[in-house]
Amino acid sequence: SYVLTQPPSVSVAPGKTARITCGGNNIGSKSVHWYQQKPGQAPVLVIYYDSERPSGIPERLSGSNSGNTATLTISRVEAGDEADYYCQVWDSSSDHVVFGGGTKLTVL
Amino acid sequence: EVQLVESGGGLVKPGGSLRLSCAASGFTFSSYSMTWVRQAPGKGLEWVSSISSSNSYIYYADSLKGRFTISRDNAKNSLYLQMNSLRAEDTAVYYCARDPGIAAAGTPHFDYWGQGTLVTVSS
Q1: Which of A43, A24, A47, A37 is nearest to A96 (CA)?
Q2: Which of A16, A37, B12, B93 can pair with A43 through a Cys bridge, CB separation 3.0 to 4.6 Å?
Q3: Is A55's pLDDT higher than 80?
Q4: What's the rounded Cα separation, in Å, for the pair B11 and B18?
């Protein structure tokens, strides 16, 4: 089965740039989607189709996908960005949705 | 406004059954695939099952081993998850989510989520 690998945690100072990676075999050939989840809340879609932002998501959040790694980039990090972030793809070989293990973003 | 409201969670003994419901409003329910995703306490997101807009395609996570059944009633704008032979490891918050993507195109993703319903399996 297809596996998505995320770092368990990323720490960044306010105002700096955070990059959260999502590794998978030839993930660049898939559409990658990203979710933000704050404690006690439901996940929120923040990036879809690798780099598209839903309405209401700030431009500071961006996505890229190439080769074996997809990346969620958060520029000018704010305290409110502190959350868990999950990447997700559709694995057509198994007809399964696959989530990464999640990355906890800590704003120092 | 898109709204998804789950219900039906609660405490159930191992081996028991539970039926979750998700009431949808604010969009044309019959035009969208729908999905159940669960999250065990302190753990990450785990996909459970998806169903296409017209019931033509249904997918399940391998870990369920035939114990769960997803269904929908487009006339009632409702999504369901029948859970049988429940185990302690099924304890989780269960979310329903709307999927504007198309499995055949490799694009399933979830743009709206409910607040979740907690299922606790314990004796």
Answers
A1: A24
A2: A37
A3: yes
A4: 9
Give residue-wise pLDDT tens across range B45-99: 999 999 999 999 999 999 897 999 999 999 999 999 999 999 999 999 999 999 9
CA distance A90 to A98: 6
Q: Which of A54, A86, A97 sits opposite B35 (nearest CB)?
A: A97
Give the integer Cα–Cα distance in Å for A37 and A9: 14
Concatenating the DSSP letter of every residue in A47-83 gives EBTTTB--TT--TTEEEEEETTEEEEEE-S--GGG-E
Report yes or no: A88 at the B interface, CB cutoff 8 Å. yes
Pairing, β B10-12 against β B117-121 = parallel
Report chain B's C-alpha Rg in angstroms: 14
User: Which residues on chain B are in Cβ contact (under 8 Å) with A54?
Assistant: 111
Backbone CA torsion sign across B31, B67, B41, A62: negative
Q: For the segment A83-103, what is each residue's pLDDT rounded down to a tens digit? A: 999 999 999 999 999 999 999
CA A59, A51, A11, A8: dihedral to nearest 10 degrees?
150
Q: Which amino acid is at A81?
A: D
Q: Which two tokens stand for residue A4?
A: 């998505």
Helices (H) and strands (E) in chain B, counts: 0, 11
d(CA A3, CA A95): 13
Nearest to A86 among B44, B50, B111 (CB): B44
Contact B109 A37 (CB under 8 A): no
